[in-house]
Amino acid sequence: MHGPVSPGWLLVALCAVTGGYCLLRMRSAVAEQRRAAGGEALMGFGMAAMAVPAATVAPPPWAWHVYAVVFGTAAVRALWAARTSPHHLHHLVGALAMVYMAVVMAVSPGGHHGGAGLPVVTGVLLVYFAGYVLRAGVRLIPVPASVGARIPVARAAGWGDRPELARACRLSMGIGMLAMLLTV
Q1: Is the pTM of this model over 0.90?
Q2: Domain limits at 137?
Q3: What does the pLDDT profile of the chain (184 residues) look like in tens digits?
Q4: Which of 12, 106, 134, 167 is the most buried (most CB within 10 A)?
Q5: CA distances to 68, 73, 145, 152, 159 from 156, in Å
Q6: Is residue 150 part of a domain?
Q7: Contact 45/77 with Cβ under 8 angstroms?
Q8: How far apart are alpha carbons 100 and 122 in whole angstroms?
Q9: Chain center to CA of 29
Q10: CA nearest 75: which of 100, 55, 52?
């Protein structure tokens, strides 16, 4: 990421912590949650690696090609998984956005951001992720129980099975994706 160093490192930290939590979620007893968490961990760590401020550590030119291949593979896997779960469509869009940013960086002179991407593609991705962030944020707002309603007793869930933490994880990655797309 090119720009101020402090926000770049904050984005790296946010994405790395999110990727780390997704690794914890891979210990879930539910197979579908483990698969989704694996894709989200890849996305979190990949975003962290791509967001490292170039003023601090300039990646070699071939790194952008590696990112494009890794996330292209993740996109194919998400497309295959989307047959059974619509949540994987979001993974597909995220992986394709990462491929797009990697290709933009690979073809940019000197690997710099700043207007190098296609405005239409960047705009569509920004609108998608802005909508996703708003939707994910609304889903985190607790809904008050109506008067007299029976409140089910929740069982103790492990770290891998906490839906509110998984939603917060997805929200933070969506915010990170927005920040990264704004620099393209």
Answers
A1: no
A2: 5-143+158-182
A3: 555 678 889 999 999 999 999 999 888 888 778 888 888 999 999 999 998 887 788 888 899 999 999 999 999 999 998 888 787 899 999 999 999 999 998 887 665 555 577 899 999 999 999 999 999 999 888 877 665 556 555 555 566 667 788 888 899 999 999 999 998 8
A4: 12
A5: 40, 36, 20, 13, 10
A6: no
A7: no
A8: 9
A9: 23
A10: 100
